[in-house]
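Purple acid phosphatase, Sorghum bicolor. C-alpha coordinates?
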Amino acid sequence: MMGDDLLLRRRGGVLFLVLSAVLVLLGGGADAGVTSSYRRKLEATVEMPLDADVFRVPPGYNAPQQVHITLGDQEGTAMTVSWVTASELGNSTVKFGEKPDPEKMERRAEGTHTRYDYFNYTSGFIHHCTLKHLKHSTKYYYAMGFGHTVRTFSFTTPPKPGPDVPFKFGLIGDLGQTFDSNITLSHYDDNGGDAVLYVGDLSYADNHPLHDNNRWDTWGRFMERNAAYQPWIWTAGNHELDFAPELGETTPFKPYTHRYPTPYLSSGSTEPFWYSVKLASAHVVVLSSYSAYGKYTPQWTWLQAELQRVDRTTTPWLVVLMHSPWYNSNNYHYMEGETMRVQFEKWLVDARADVVLAGHVHSYERSHRVSNVAYDIVNGEATPVRDAGAPVYVTIGDGGNIEGVADNFTRPQPSYSAFREASFGHATLEIKNRTHAYYSWHRNHDGAKVVADGVWLTNRAQSYAVFFLDRTKTSSMAIDHQP
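C-alpha coordinates:
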Protein backbone atom coordinates (compact mmCIF):
# COMPACT_ATOMS: atom_id res chain seq x y z
CA MET A 1 0.00 0.00 0.00
CA MET A 2 2.80 2.40 0.92
CA GLY A 3 4.54 1.60 -2.36
CA ASP A 4 1.38 2.36 -4.35
CA ASP A 5 0.93 5.65 -2.52
CA LEU A 6 4.49 6.68 -3.31
CA LEU A 7 3.98 5.78 -6.97
CA LEU A 8 0.83 7.89 -7.15
CA ARG A 9 2.64 10.87 -5.58
CA ARG A 10 5.46 10.55 -8.10
CA ARG A 11 2.98 10.35 -10.99
CA GLY A 12 1.21 13.40 -9.60
CA GLY A 13 4.54 15.22 -9.55
CA VAL A 14 5.17 14.30 -13.18
CA LEU A 15 1.69 15.56 -14.13
CA PHE A 16 2.40 18.83 -12.32
CA LEU A 17 5.66 19.25 -14.24
CA VAL A 18 3.90 18.56 -17.55
CA LEU A 19 1.19 21.08 -16.76
CA SER A 20 3.82 23.63 -15.74
CA ALA A 21 5.63 23.11 -19.06
CA VAL A 22 2.38 23.69 -20.92
CA LEU A 23 1.82 26.93 -19.02
CA VAL A 24 5.33 28.10 -19.92
CA LEU A 25 4.75 27.30 -23.59
CA LEU A 26 1.56 29.31 -23.46
CA GLY A 27 3.23 32.35 -22.02
CA GLY A 28 3.15 31.82 -18.26
CA GLY A 29 0.34 34.04 -16.96
CA ALA A 30 -2.89 32.81 -18.46
CA ASP A 31 -4.18 36.33 -19.04
CA ALA A 32 -1.03 37.79 -20.59
CA GLY A 33 -1.54 39.41 -23.98
CA VAL A 34 0.57 41.55 -26.30
CA THR A 35 -0.32 45.00 -27.54
CA SER A 36 2.34 45.53 -30.16
CA SER A 37 4.64 48.49 -29.62
CA TYR A 38 5.10 48.81 -33.37
CA ARG A 39 3.76 52.09 -34.74
CA ARG A 40 3.07 52.52 -38.41
CA LYS A 41 4.15 55.81 -39.96
CA LEU A 42 1.71 58.66 -39.45
CA GLU A 43 0.57 59.13 -43.00
CA ALA A 44 -2.74 59.57 -44.72
CA THR A 45 -4.61 56.62 -46.17
CA VAL A 46 -5.10 57.85 -49.73
CA GLU A 47 -7.02 56.27 -52.58
CA MET A 48 -5.06 55.60 -55.71
CA PRO A 49 -5.86 58.08 -58.52
CA LEU A 50 -8.25 56.94 -61.21
CA ASP A 51 -5.44 56.94 -63.79
CA ALA A 52 -3.33 54.51 -61.72
CA ASP A 53 -2.10 51.55 -63.72
CA VAL A 54 -3.93 49.10 -61.46
CA PHE A 55 -7.23 50.57 -62.69
CA ARG A 56 -6.30 50.47 -66.38
CA VAL A 57 -9.02 49.25 -68.74
CA PRO A 58 -7.66 46.30 -70.75
CA PRO A 59 -6.90 47.11 -74.40
CA GLY A 60 -9.20 46.06 -77.22
CA TYR A 61 -12.78 46.81 -78.05
CA ASN A 62 -15.25 45.56 -75.42
CA ALA A 63 -12.47 43.56 -73.76
CA PRO A 64 -13.59 41.57 -70.72
CA GLN A 65 -12.57 43.34 -67.52
CA GLN A 66 -12.90 42.88 -63.74
CA VAL A 67 -12.43 39.13 -64.17
CA HIS A 68 -12.74 37.12 -60.96
CA ILE A 69 -13.56 33.56 -59.95
CA THR A 70 -15.15 31.76 -57.02
CA LEU A 71 -16.16 28.18 -56.39
CA GLY A 72 -19.17 27.12 -58.41
CA ASP A 73 -20.14 24.27 -56.11
CA GLN A 74 -19.37 23.12 -52.60
CA GLU A 75 -16.41 20.82 -53.30
CA GLY A 76 -14.38 22.56 -56.01
CA THR A 77 -15.42 20.64 -59.13
CA ALA A 78 -16.99 23.79 -60.57
CA MET A 79 -15.72 27.34 -60.89
CA THR A 80 -17.82 30.44 -61.55
CA VAL A 81 -16.15 33.03 -63.78
CA SER A 82 -17.41 36.62 -63.68
CA TRP A 83 -16.49 39.60 -65.84
CA VAL A 84 -17.82 42.86 -67.28
CA THR A 85 -18.06 44.11 -70.85
CA ALA A 86 -18.41 47.87 -70.89
CA SER A 87 -19.38 48.78 -74.45
CA GLU A 88 -21.90 46.15 -75.50
CA LEU A 89 -23.22 42.79 -74.40
CA GLY A 90 -21.03 40.54 -76.49
CA ASN A 91 -21.57 36.97 -75.32
CA SER A 92 -21.32 35.00 -72.10
CA THR A 93 -19.38 32.05 -73.53
CA VAL A 94 -16.30 30.71 -71.76
CA LYS A 95 -13.98 28.21 -73.40
CA PHE A 96 -11.73 26.21 -71.11
CA GLY A 97 -9.35 23.30 -71.03
CA GLU A 98 -5.86 22.21 -70.06
CA LYS A 99 -4.17 23.94 -73.01
CA PRO A 100 -3.52 27.71 -73.02
CA ASP A 101 -4.48 28.35 -76.66
CA PRO A 102 -8.20 29.29 -76.89
CA GLU A 103 -8.34 27.57 -80.27
CA LYS A 104 -7.34 24.30 -78.60
CA MET A 105 -9.62 24.54 -75.57
CA GLU A 106 -11.90 21.56 -75.98
CA ARG A 107 -14.74 22.61 -73.67
CA ARG A 108 -17.14 25.53 -73.52
CA ALA A 109 -19.85 26.79 -71.18
CA GLU A 110 -22.63 29.30 -71.66
CA GLY A 111 -23.29 31.82 -68.93
CA THR A 112 -25.79 34.54 -68.16
CA HIS A 113 -25.60 38.30 -67.89
CA THR A 114 -27.14 41.02 -65.78
CA ARG A 115 -27.13 44.80 -65.41
CA TYR A 116 -28.30 47.18 -62.73
CA ASP A 117 -29.01 50.87 -62.20
CA TYR A 118 -27.96 52.67 -59.05
CA PHE A 119 -29.11 56.27 -58.77
CA ASN A 120 -27.31 58.01 -61.67
CA TYR A 121 -25.15 55.01 -62.61
CA THR A 122 -25.78 52.14 -65.04
CA SER A 123 -23.47 49.17 -64.88
CA GLY A 124 -21.79 47.49 -67.79
CA PHE A 125 -22.88 44.02 -68.83
CA ILE A 126 -21.99 41.68 -65.96
CA HIS A 127 -21.41 38.08 -67.03
CA HIS A 128 -21.38 34.94 -64.87
CA CYS A 129 -20.51 31.51 -66.24
CA THR A 130 -20.02 28.32 -64.23
CA LEU A 131 -17.51 25.77 -65.52
CA LYS A 132 -18.63 22.33 -64.34
CA HIS A 133 -17.28 18.77 -64.11
CA LEU A 134 -13.73 19.88 -63.37
CA LYS A 135 -11.03 17.56 -62.10
CA HIS A 136 -9.47 18.26 -58.72
CA SER A 137 -5.88 19.59 -58.49
CA THR A 138 -5.81 20.46 -62.18
CA LYS A 139 -4.68 23.61 -63.93
CA TYR A 140 -7.25 24.95 -66.39
CA TYR A 141 -7.00 27.80 -68.84
CA TYR A 142 -10.11 29.77 -69.70
CA ALA A 143 -10.98 32.46 -72.20
CA MET A 144 -13.88 34.82 -72.90
CA GLY A 145 -14.68 37.83 -75.08
CA PHE A 146 -15.22 35.91 -78.32
CA GLY A 147 -16.42 38.10 -81.17
CA HIS A 148 -14.59 41.17 -79.88
CA THR A 149 -11.44 40.93 -77.71
CA VAL A 150 -10.46 37.55 -76.30
CA ARG A 151 -8.64 37.36 -72.97
CA THR A 152 -7.18 34.22 -71.40
CA PHE A 153 -6.55 33.37 -67.75
CA SER A 154 -5.92 30.25 -65.67
CA PHE A 155 -6.69 28.68 -62.31
CA THR A 156 -5.91 25.47 -60.47
CA THR A 157 -8.81 23.60 -58.94
CA PRO A 158 -8.55 22.74 -55.25
CA PRO A 159 -7.62 19.19 -54.28
CA LYS A 160 -10.29 16.66 -53.44
CA PRO A 161 -11.42 17.12 -49.83
CA GLY A 162 -9.52 14.84 -47.48
CA PRO A 163 -8.20 14.87 -43.91
CA ASP A 164 -4.48 15.28 -44.65
CA VAL A 165 -4.63 17.45 -47.77
CA PRO A 166 -2.44 20.56 -47.34
CA PHE A 167 -3.82 23.92 -48.43
CA LYS A 168 -2.85 27.56 -47.97
CA PHE A 169 -5.46 30.27 -47.49
CA GLY A 170 -4.96 33.99 -47.84
CA LEU A 171 -6.94 35.95 -45.25
CA ILE A 172 -7.89 39.50 -46.27
CA GLY A 173 -10.56 41.97 -45.26
CA ASP A 174 -11.70 45.58 -45.64
CA LEU A 175 -9.39 46.14 -48.58
CA GLY A 176 -10.64 49.16 -50.49
CA GLN A 177 -8.45 50.74 -53.17
CA THR A 178 -5.82 52.91 -51.53
CA PHE A 179 -2.06 52.81 -51.87
CA ASP A 180 -2.08 50.68 -48.71
CA SER A 181 -4.57 48.31 -50.35
CA ASN A 182 -2.14 47.87 -53.21
CA ILE A 183 0.66 46.95 -50.79
CA THR A 184 -1.59 44.41 -49.08
CA LEU A 185 -2.50 42.71 -52.35
CA SER A 186 1.12 42.78 -53.57
CA HIS A 187 2.34 41.22 -50.33
CA TYR A 188 -0.25 38.48 -50.58
CA ASP A 189 0.80 37.85 -54.19
CA ASP A 190 4.38 37.45 -52.96
CA ASN A 191 3.42 35.13 -50.10
CA GLY A 192 1.24 32.99 -52.31
CA GLY A 193 -1.84 31.02 -51.49
CA ASP A 194 -4.35 28.67 -53.06
CA ALA A 195 -7.55 30.61 -52.30
CA VAL A 196 -8.58 33.76 -50.44
CA LEU A 197 -11.03 33.86 -47.56
CA TYR A 198 -12.34 37.42 -47.78
CA VAL A 199 -14.16 38.72 -44.70
CA GLY A 200 -16.10 41.59 -46.24
CA ASP A 201 -16.02 45.27 -47.26
CA LEU A 202 -14.81 45.30 -50.84
CA SER A 203 -14.77 48.52 -52.88
CA TYR A 204 -15.90 51.19 -50.40
CA ALA A 205 -17.84 52.79 -53.22
CA ASP A 206 -20.38 53.95 -50.65
CA ASN A 207 -17.73 56.22 -49.09
CA HIS A 208 -17.96 58.42 -52.18
CA PRO A 209 -20.65 60.98 -53.02
CA LEU A 210 -23.86 59.33 -54.24
CA HIS A 211 -22.33 55.88 -53.61
CA ASP A 212 -20.29 56.30 -56.79
CA ASN A 213 -20.59 52.86 -58.40
CA ASN A 214 -17.75 53.63 -60.79
CA ARG A 215 -15.62 52.67 -57.79
CA TRP A 216 -17.01 49.15 -58.03
CA ASP A 217 -15.53 49.04 -61.54
CA THR A 218 -12.11 50.35 -60.51
CA TRP A 219 -11.99 47.87 -57.62
CA GLY A 220 -12.84 44.99 -59.94
CA ARG A 221 -10.00 45.93 -62.30
CA PHE A 222 -7.62 46.34 -59.35
CA MET A 223 -8.43 42.88 -57.98
CA GLU A 224 -8.26 41.07 -61.32
CA ARG A 225 -4.53 40.40 -61.08
CA ASN A 226 -5.20 37.90 -58.30
CA ALA A 227 -8.93 37.14 -58.26
CA ALA A 228 -8.90 35.96 -61.91
CA TYR A 229 -6.38 33.24 -61.02
CA GLN A 230 -7.57 31.79 -57.72
CA PRO A 231 -10.99 31.54 -56.07
CA TRP A 232 -12.04 34.18 -53.58
CA ILE A 233 -14.63 33.15 -51.00
CA TRP A 234 -16.77 36.22 -50.40
CA THR A 235 -18.32 37.50 -47.17
CA ALA A 236 -20.73 40.45 -47.23
CA GLY A 237 -19.80 43.44 -45.06
CA ASN A 238 -21.60 46.62 -44.11
CA HIS A 239 -20.07 48.49 -47.05
CA GLU A 240 -21.80 46.04 -49.38
CA LEU A 241 -25.25 47.09 -48.13
CA ASP A 242 -25.45 50.23 -50.33
CA PHE A 243 -28.78 50.99 -48.69
CA ALA A 244 -29.47 54.65 -49.45
CA PRO A 245 -33.14 55.69 -49.19
CA GLU A 246 -32.11 59.31 -49.70
CA LEU A 247 -31.02 58.29 -53.21
CA GLY A 248 -34.08 56.13 -53.79
CA GLU A 249 -31.97 52.98 -53.32
CA THR A 250 -33.79 50.67 -50.92
CA THR A 251 -32.62 47.23 -52.11
CA PRO A 252 -29.78 46.10 -49.83
CA PHE A 253 -26.65 44.60 -51.40
CA LYS A 254 -27.71 45.49 -54.97
CA PRO A 255 -24.25 46.11 -56.54
CA TYR A 256 -22.64 43.28 -54.55
CA THR A 257 -25.17 40.61 -55.49
CA HIS A 258 -25.07 41.57 -59.17
CA ARG A 259 -21.27 41.38 -59.27
CA TYR A 260 -20.13 38.70 -56.80
CA PRO A 261 -22.00 35.38 -56.90
CA THR A 262 -21.52 32.68 -54.28
CA PRO A 263 -22.24 28.92 -54.45
CA TYR A 264 -24.93 29.13 -51.78
CA LEU A 265 -27.39 26.72 -53.38
CA SER A 266 -24.92 23.85 -53.25
CA SER A 267 -24.88 23.98 -49.44
CA GLY A 268 -28.64 24.24 -49.07
CA SER A 269 -28.71 27.96 -48.29
CA THR A 270 -31.59 30.15 -49.38
CA GLU A 271 -29.54 33.35 -49.75
CA PRO A 272 -26.09 34.16 -51.18
CA PHE A 273 -24.90 35.74 -47.93
CA TRP A 274 -24.50 32.55 -45.88
CA TYR A 275 -23.15 29.30 -47.31
CA SER A 276 -20.33 26.78 -47.03
CA VAL A 277 -17.57 25.29 -49.18
CA LYS A 278 -15.08 22.46 -48.75
CA LEU A 279 -11.49 23.21 -49.67
CA ALA A 280 -8.95 20.40 -49.17
CA SER A 281 -9.11 19.54 -45.46
CA ALA A 282 -11.21 22.58 -44.47
CA HIS A 283 -14.95 23.07 -44.18
CA VAL A 284 -15.49 26.83 -44.51
CA VAL A 285 -18.73 28.35 -43.22
CA VAL A 286 -19.63 31.91 -44.28
CA LEU A 287 -22.11 33.88 -42.16
CA SER A 288 -23.81 37.23 -42.72
CA SER A 289 -23.55 39.82 -39.96
CA TYR A 290 -26.09 42.01 -41.76
CA SER A 291 -28.86 39.50 -42.41
CA ALA A 292 -31.33 38.30 -39.81
CA TYR A 293 -29.89 35.61 -37.54
CA GLY A 294 -32.40 35.43 -34.69
CA LYS A 295 -34.08 32.21 -33.70
CA TYR A 296 -35.91 30.44 -36.55
CA THR A 297 -34.69 32.88 -39.22
CA PRO A 298 -33.38 31.30 -42.43
CA GLN A 299 -29.73 31.90 -41.48
CA TRP A 300 -30.27 30.46 -37.96
CA THR A 301 -32.03 27.40 -39.36
CA TRP A 302 -29.38 26.85 -42.02
CA LEU A 303 -26.40 27.14 -39.63
CA GLN A 304 -27.96 24.72 -37.17
CA ALA A 305 -28.32 22.12 -39.91
CA GLU A 306 -24.98 22.92 -41.55
CA LEU A 307 -22.93 22.31 -38.42
CA GLN A 308 -24.51 18.87 -38.20
CA ARG A 309 -23.42 18.16 -41.78
CA VAL A 310 -19.74 18.90 -41.17
CA ASP A 311 -17.75 15.68 -41.54
CA ARG A 312 -14.57 16.13 -39.51
CA THR A 313 -13.20 12.79 -40.72
CA THR A 314 -12.99 14.23 -44.24
CA THR A 315 -12.60 17.94 -43.52
CA PRO A 316 -11.17 18.14 -40.00
CA TRP A 317 -10.64 21.93 -40.05
CA LEU A 318 -13.74 24.03 -39.40
CA VAL A 319 -13.23 27.69 -40.32
CA VAL A 320 -15.96 30.33 -39.94
CA LEU A 321 -16.13 33.71 -41.70
CA MET A 322 -18.18 36.75 -40.76
CA HIS A 323 -17.72 40.50 -40.98
CA SER A 324 -18.41 41.93 -37.52
CA PRO A 325 -16.11 40.38 -34.88
CA TRP A 326 -17.40 38.73 -31.72
CA TYR A 327 -14.22 39.40 -29.73
CA ASN A 328 -12.81 42.88 -30.32
CA SER A 329 -10.87 45.08 -27.90
CA ASN A 330 -10.86 48.17 -30.11
CA ASN A 331 -13.19 51.05 -29.32
CA TYR A 332 -14.09 51.10 -33.01
CA HIS A 333 -17.12 48.83 -33.51
CA TYR A 334 -16.80 47.62 -29.93
CA MET A 335 -19.34 44.87 -29.18
CA GLU A 336 -21.21 45.33 -32.48
CA GLY A 337 -21.08 41.56 -33.00
CA GLU A 338 -22.38 40.78 -29.52
CA THR A 339 -25.93 39.78 -30.44
CA MET A 340 -24.68 37.32 -33.06
CA ARG A 341 -22.13 35.96 -30.60
CA VAL A 342 -24.85 35.32 -28.02
CA GLN A 343 -26.93 33.56 -30.67
CA PHE A 344 -24.24 31.32 -32.19
CA GLU A 345 -21.14 31.06 -29.99
CA LYS A 346 -22.24 27.94 -28.11
CA TRP A 347 -22.93 26.20 -31.42
CA LEU A 348 -19.39 26.88 -32.63
CA VAL A 349 -17.84 25.79 -29.33
CA ASP A 350 -19.91 22.61 -29.32
CA ALA A 351 -18.88 21.99 -32.95
CA ARG A 352 -15.22 22.57 -31.99
CA ALA A 353 -14.66 25.22 -34.66
CA ASP A 354 -10.97 25.94 -35.15
CA VAL A 355 -10.78 29.54 -36.34
CA VAL A 356 -13.33 32.38 -36.64
CA LEU A 357 -12.30 35.17 -39.01
CA ALA A 358 -13.82 38.65 -39.08
CA GLY A 359 -13.10 42.12 -40.44
CA HIS A 360 -14.89 45.44 -39.84
CA VAL A 361 -12.32 46.79 -37.34
CA HIS A 362 -9.42 48.30 -39.28
CA SER A 363 -6.63 46.83 -37.22
CA TYR A 364 -5.31 43.38 -36.38
CA GLU A 365 -6.15 41.21 -33.38
CA ARG A 366 -5.87 37.53 -32.45
CA SER A 367 -7.53 36.01 -29.41
CA HIS A 368 -6.70 33.12 -27.15
CA ARG A 369 -9.07 30.16 -27.24
CA VAL A 370 -11.87 31.55 -25.12
CA SER A 371 -15.61 31.28 -24.76
CA ASN A 372 -18.36 33.15 -22.98
CA VAL A 373 -21.11 30.56 -23.32
CA ALA A 374 -21.95 30.62 -19.61
CA TYR A 375 -23.48 34.09 -19.87
CA ASP A 376 -27.28 33.98 -19.77
CA ILE A 377 -28.06 37.65 -18.98
CA VAL A 378 -29.09 37.04 -15.37
CA ASN A 379 -26.23 34.99 -13.91
CA GLY A 380 -23.62 37.75 -14.18
CA GLU A 381 -20.94 35.41 -15.53
CA ALA A 382 -20.08 37.61 -18.48
CA THR A 383 -16.30 37.21 -18.49
CA PRO A 384 -14.74 35.08 -21.26
CA VAL A 385 -12.72 32.14 -19.96
CA ARG A 386 -10.02 29.99 -21.54
CA ASP A 387 -11.67 27.08 -23.32
CA ALA A 388 -9.68 24.45 -25.19
CA GLY A 389 -12.73 23.52 -27.23
CA ALA A 390 -13.27 27.08 -28.46
CA PRO A 391 -11.96 28.65 -31.67
CA VAL A 392 -9.27 31.27 -32.08
CA TYR A 393 -10.84 34.58 -33.12
CA VAL A 394 -8.96 36.71 -35.66
CA THR A 395 -9.87 40.24 -36.70
CA ILE A 396 -8.25 40.86 -40.07
CA GLY A 397 -10.03 44.05 -41.21
CA ASP A 398 -6.67 45.68 -41.90
CA GLY A 399 -6.52 45.52 -45.68
CA GLY A 400 -5.88 49.23 -46.16
CA ASN A 401 -9.13 51.03 -46.94
CA ILE A 402 -9.71 54.78 -47.10
CA GLU A 403 -11.15 55.03 -43.59
CA GLY A 404 -7.70 54.42 -42.10
CA VAL A 405 -6.27 52.41 -39.21
CA ALA A 406 -8.36 51.82 -36.07
CA ASP A 407 -5.80 52.81 -33.43
CA ASN A 408 -7.99 53.17 -30.34
CA PHE A 409 -7.55 49.95 -28.38
CA THR A 410 -9.21 49.57 -25.00
CA ARG A 411 -6.95 49.66 -21.94
CA PRO A 412 -5.97 47.46 -20.27
CA GLN A 413 -5.79 44.71 -22.86
CA PRO A 414 -8.52 42.18 -21.98
CA SER A 415 -7.53 38.66 -21.00
CA TYR A 416 -9.06 37.12 -24.14
CA SER A 417 -6.77 39.13 -26.45
CA ALA A 418 -3.47 37.43 -27.35
CA PHE A 419 -1.97 39.94 -29.82
CA ARG A 420 -3.18 43.22 -31.31
CA GLU A 421 -1.69 45.96 -33.46
CA ALA A 422 -2.99 49.02 -35.28
CA SER A 423 -1.43 48.39 -38.69
CA PHE A 424 -2.44 47.29 -42.18
CA GLY A 425 -1.60 43.82 -43.49
CA HIS A 426 -2.87 40.36 -44.39
CA ALA A 427 -2.64 36.85 -42.98
CA THR A 428 -2.29 33.28 -44.20
CA LEU A 429 -3.53 29.99 -42.79
CA GLU A 430 -1.45 27.08 -44.03
CA ILE A 431 -3.03 23.74 -43.19
CA LYS A 432 -0.37 21.03 -43.02
CA ASN A 433 -2.44 17.95 -42.14
CA ARG A 434 -5.39 16.88 -40.02
CA THR A 435 -3.80 18.03 -36.77
CA HIS A 436 -1.64 21.09 -37.46
CA ALA A 437 -1.83 24.41 -39.29
CA TYR A 438 0.42 27.45 -39.23
CA TYR A 439 -1.24 30.85 -38.98
CA SER A 440 0.76 34.02 -39.68
CA TRP A 441 0.05 37.74 -39.94
CA HIS A 442 2.17 40.05 -42.10
CA ARG A 443 2.17 43.84 -41.62
CA ASN A 444 2.51 46.00 -44.72
CA HIS A 445 5.51 47.94 -43.46
CA ASP A 446 7.68 44.82 -43.31
CA GLY A 447 8.92 42.66 -46.12
CA ALA A 448 6.14 40.52 -47.54
CA LYS A 449 7.32 37.30 -45.91
CA VAL A 450 8.14 38.71 -42.47
CA VAL A 451 5.87 37.21 -39.81
CA ALA A 452 4.74 39.83 -37.30
CA ASP A 453 2.48 37.40 -35.43
CA GLY A 454 2.40 33.64 -35.87
CA VAL A 455 1.09 30.58 -34.09
CA TRP A 456 0.85 26.84 -34.70
CA LEU A 457 -2.75 25.71 -34.33
CA THR A 458 -3.83 22.24 -33.30
CA ASN A 459 -7.09 20.96 -34.69
CA ARG A 460 -9.99 20.97 -32.23
CA ALA A 461 -11.64 17.80 -33.51
CA GLN A 462 -8.51 15.74 -34.11
CA SER A 463 -5.76 16.58 -31.64
CA TYR A 464 -5.87 18.84 -28.60
CA ALA A 465 -4.65 18.69 -25.02
CA VAL A 466 -6.76 20.15 -22.27
CA PHE A 467 -6.45 20.49 -18.51
CA PHE A 468 -9.70 21.68 -17.00
CA LEU A 469 -12.14 21.34 -14.13
CA ASP A 470 -15.23 23.15 -15.39
CA ARG A 471 -15.48 25.28 -18.54
CA THR A 472 -17.73 27.78 -16.75
CA LYS A 473 -15.61 28.06 -13.60
CA THR A 474 -11.94 28.03 -14.56
CA SER A 475 -9.51 28.46 -17.41
CA SER A 476 -8.66 25.76 -19.94
CA MET A 477 -5.34 25.49 -21.68
CA ALA A 478 -4.98 24.39 -25.30
CA ILE A 479 -1.59 23.64 -26.77
CA ASP A 480 -1.31 26.22 -29.55
CA HIS A 481 2.40 26.99 -29.70
CA GLN A 482 3.85 30.42 -30.40
CA PRO A 483 6.84 30.04 -32.74
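Confidence is low (pLDDT under 50) at residues 1-30, 464-479.
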